[in-house]
Request: fold
Amino acid sequence: MEVKAIIEKWKPKVEAYFSTYPWKNTLFFFLFLLLAFIFWLMLFFQKENVEGTYRIPLKYVNIPEDVVFDNPLPDYVEVSITDNGASIFRLDISKKDSLEINVTELTEGGNSSLQGDQYRQLIRSRLFSGTNIRGYYPMIINLSTSKLQSKELKVVFDGEITTSRSNLVADSVSFLPEQVTAYGSRESLSKLEHATTQYTLFKNLKATSQLPIFINRVEGIKFVPDQVDIFIPIEEYTERTFEVPIMATGLPNKLDVKFFPSRANVSFSVTLEEYRKIAPEDFEIRLNYRTFHSNEDGRVELQLSKSPEAAQNVRISPSSVEFLFENKAAR
Reply:
């Protein structure tokens, strides 16, 4: 209610202020401001020898896979130019296309650097014909390279895979391609046993997937390709539970043992295809007498001694049971 009262109080004052505001004078002011800006643009477009400085991105193409550059390559070339105002304005608002440097073509015949007229002509290809180049930096791009050793490495996944509630990863993941080529010095390559992917988390997968993944970078090493596809087989699973008897092995001839309870629930996930193929007899809980006879608390942890490969995420409930030894002769 207080907010509504404040609005009702100030509403007449605001309406009175805007009703008496000199809107006509304000509109004339902005009109003259716009005309002045247009007049300034016309003078600027006609002006000659307007200076400008631009950064042109560099893109290196056709680089041999088995070489490494001896020096870091620049990402940009800074160019200082002069031209008429109209051309400078067009350069200011236009997107700067990358300047492509064909490494294989330029280094043929033993040439190891880009400079002089060849460099200037490449820069001019990104400017207008009437533009005058006053200077550029760097003036020389060193393209000298050294030959690398190579080694084939198996791709190994680093990360986590989670599926939706009713799905599980059916088998181990695979890669396309399964191997990549690593280029580097002999010493650097000797330390590598496999190519590890970047740590990646694939969440809530619901179906078999083929996804791109990058190879983790290693200093001084170049991987080709540096990106592979990971194939993750996903199948729909359902839950099933069997009661399995708890048995003991290796008992002395005159000794018997009773477990409380005598049976355990074994729950597991299984594909719809394998669901009817699995029976209770495929699971066994056989406890070796030697592993639990000296347990002072009278309890033993349960472990499966037999289970089918198709059963995934197997759980036993309860996880432990009580036991009691009996002398057969006393019964």
